[in-house]
Design brief:
Shape: elongated
Strand order of the largest sheet: 5-8-7-6-11-9-12-10
Oligomer: single chain
Strand content: 15-25%
Radius of gyration: 20 Å
Structural class: alpha/beta
Mean pLDDT: 90
Order of helices and strands: EHEHEHEEHEHEHEHEEEHEH
Distance between the termini: 43 Å
């Protein structure tokens, strides 16, 4: 059992969980020997909320929850607690040494975990993620983070662009990472509260999000390489920011 997850079992508990707290569900496991029609409502709710479903042998369910009446279904929930954006914003006092990451729909859990690890290691103050279309703190993300997930706040915002506007009202400057950025990453001076936007693995930062940024930063590419992995780009940003704090 992975220490990043807890498990709920049984058809009614899992159905209620999906109806009321679907954003906390990492994954659903169903016994592959049972008729899927038995879980039709649950599968529909999982699809509506973009919760992955795995058909597994009964032995896998036993491995997760032990000898219980699991009714052929188990849901995994992350134990890593998100902090809501409004609550986090209310308690912080940003200064010139404050730095945060904003993830614009990072979908790969391994990328997410690697970014969380780098953010914690470099001393970032928080990682802000959108409530939807964002990889959860799943077992895969937790493992990739090498157990560092949760060492700094993971903040959840209902709307990332609205969060950016509120950050601006609270003295933050917003820098988006973009291959067509205004300046190179190391040409900017980060002597104010900074929020760095890391875009989606495939499509990059959304256009509207980029329009909300105060400036765009690029990382030069050579030898025909189009872009870097999102977690590698985030690492470069985090440590350039930290390098300037050490000067």
């Amino acid at each position: 059992m992975d220490e990043s997850n807890e498990f709920i079992y049984g058809r009614n508990p899992v159905e209620e969980l999906l109806k009321n707290r679907a954003d906390e569900v990492e994954k659903i496991y169903i016994n592959r020997k049972l008729n899927k029609q038995t879980f039709s409502t649950i599968l529909s709710l999982a699809s509506d909320n973009r919760v992955p479903v795995a058909e597994v042998p009964g032995s896998k369910l036993y491995e997760l929850v032990g000898k219980v009446n699991d009714q052929g279904i188990v849901a995994a929930i992350s134990q890593i607690q998100y902090e809501e954006f409004e609550d986090w914003l209310e308690r912080i006092e940003p200064n010139q040494n404050t730095g945060i990451l904003l993830l614009d729909e990072i979908e790969d859990p391994h990328n997410f975990g690697a970014i969380l690890r780098t953010a914690a290691a470099s001393g970032m103050d928080a990682v802000i993620v959108p409530k939807h279309r964002q990889a959860p703190v799943s077992a895969a993300a937790y493992k990739t983070s090498a157990g560092t997930a949760g060492r700094i706040p993971i903040v959840r915002a209902v709307n990332l662009n609205q969060a950016i506007l509120k950050l601006k009202d609270n003295k933050f400057w917003i820098a988006g990472l973009d291959m067509d950025g205004d300046s190179l990453l190391w040409e900017q001076t980060f002597d104010v509260p900074m929020a760095f936007v890391i875009g989606n693995e495939g499509r990059g930062m959304r256009q509207k999000t980029g329009e909300h940024c105060d400036f765009l930063l690029s990382i030069p590419m050579y030898n025909g390489v189009e872009s870097l992995n999102a977690s590698v780009s985030a690492a470069l940003v985090c440590y350039e920011w930290r390098r300037q704090k050490l000067k």
